[in-house]
Amino acid sequence: MKTSNTSASITLVILFFGLALTTRTKLFSVKTQNTTTAVLAAAATDGICSSMVKKHGYTCEEHLVTTQDGYILSMQRIPVGKSGGMAGNKLPVLLQHGLLMDGITWLLLPPQQSLAFLLADDGFDVWLANTRGTKYSRQHTSLTPGDPDYWNWSWDELVKYDLPATIQYVHDQTGQKLHYVGHSLGTLMALAAFSKNQLLNLLRSAALLSPIAYAGQMTSPLARNAADNFVAEYLYKIGIYEFDPSGQGVIEVLKKICKKPGVDCTNLLTAFTGKNCCLDPSIVTVFLEHEPQPTATKNMIHLSQMIREGTITMYDYKDEKENTKHYGQPTPPIYDMTSIPNDFPLFLSYGGADALSDVKDVKLLLGSLKDHEGDKLVVQERDDYAHADYVMAENAQQDVYDPLMAFFKLQ
Questions:
Q1: Euclidean distance between the first and final Cα of the chain, in Å?
Q2: Long-range contacts of 251-256 (CB under 8 A, 24+ apart)
Q3: Which of 42, 66, 140, 180 is deepest in the core (most CB within 10 A)?
């Protein structure tokens, strides 16, 4: 039931973004040779494996991988299905979450519906990635999350450092090329890398759910207003370098956005993602126990640039000298989607009700892929799906995940 009562809107904003605060613990950098041992010991009792996987009867391993720029990322491995069996020689799959989320994205639904568990039960060797800055990936070789430099990155660095580190690690551990699944920001990371002809030699295929390359026609009222009003830039200017959705600074800004005409925050998830068709209310409760997760304010600025300008380029410093310093040219380089090799197997699924991965923007991406080999590109449109349905819909198994797994088996 909708209401125009501002206080009710604000209460829901705080509820949505604030509940996660009580469950979030921050891990700080430990500058000793025992960092890996100490973190893995902590993860054994307070990690994703113990909290979300083992309780359902699945084998789970905690792993750490260090990026070239010093970020220590948490990864989880589900090597076999619930029925057990021998690990090894199973095809590996890496699951990469989206913005303001972490690897728990793929574990929110019951085991018989969650993609990570379904893949494991179907004979795949499943790996979960967690990007820098999220709850279980807050370590660094020399910095702590309290240092501004720790947050000096955008999704460019996720493409340059996080994605190669995790994919290379899985490849080295398994000795096999892997399949990739990305949702939202996880698709942008992959597409940007593919456009540079990076990582393709380590991959068998990629499945992209709610694909984002272009964002200029995004209809999400919250995201659109935040971008148009330079909210991330304002937060960065006043010294908020960590964009924590449950942090007081971000909540205060969200309150102001929710007062703007045309922004109805009485259903905040819908205001952000579009009207999801198929979420069981209990799933939202599970979601709030673990999400949302922090990211860099600079990352939010980069995404805002994409929304305002309709471009897909590297981070724009809005200063020719700064851009030249970083890129050797006065404007940021473009990620050219037409450069993605036409013979690389891609599975794309997008929703007609998605306010973040808007259909018009997806069509721009598909236009860039128009010369892709016919048997190497599978495109699925779900008219009733919005952004969160792809990771939380109770019917996603039969509608999206089963076709996705069938695609993998053909590659």
A1: 47
A2: 251/13, 251/14, 251/17, 251/18, 253/226, 254/13, 254/17, 254/222, 255/10, 255/13
A3: 180
Q: Tokens in use for 297?
A: 């304010």
- CB-CB contact of 307 with 218 (8 Å): yes
How far apart (Å, rounded) are the C-alpha atoms in residues 177 and 204?
6
Q: What is the pLDDT of residue 351?
A: 97
> For residue 332, which phi and psi values (nearest 5 degrees)?
-65, 140
Q: 3-state secondary structure string, the chain?
A: CCCCCHHHHHHHHHHHHHHHHHHCCCCCCCCCCCHHHHHHHHHHHHCHHHHHHHHHCCCCEEEEEECCCCEEEEEEEECCECCECCCCCCCEEEEECCCCCCHHHHHCCCCCCCHHHHHHHCCCEEEEECCCCCCCCCEECCCCCCCHHHHCCCHHHHHHHHHHHHHHHHHHHHCCCEEEEEECHHHHHHHHHHHCCCCHHHEEEEEEECCCCCCCCCCCHHHHHHHHCCHHHHHHHCCCCEECCCCHHHHHHHHHHHCCCCCCHHHHHHHHHCCCCCCCHHHHHHHHHHCCCCEEHHHHHHHHHHHHHCCCECCCCCCHHHHHHHHCCCCCCECCHHHCCCCCCEEEEEECCCCCCCHHHHHHHHHHCCCCCHHHEEEEEECCCCCCHHHHCCCHHHHHHHHHHHHHHHC
Q: Which residues contact 35 (CB under 8 A, 6 or more apart)?
A: 29, 72, 139, 141
Which sequence positions are flagged as catalytic?
184, 354, 387
What pTM did the predictor assign? 0.88
Nearest Cα residue to 198 out of 336, 102, 310 = 336
Report the candidate in 329, 393, 387 with the shortest Cα–Cα distance to residue 209. Answer: 387
CA distance 256 to 280: 30
* Angle at the Cα of 8 from the Cα atoms of 250 and 290, rounded to 5 degrees: 50
Task: Characterize the bridge pairing of strands 242-243 and 346-351.
Answer: unpaired
Give per-residue pLDDT as tens, 300-352. Answer: 999 999 999 999 999 999 999 999 999 999 999 999 999 999 999 999 999 99
Residue pair 39/27 in contact (Cβ under 8 Å)? The answer is yes
Quote the crossing angle between the two packed helices 297-309 and 221-228, to the nearest 10°: 90
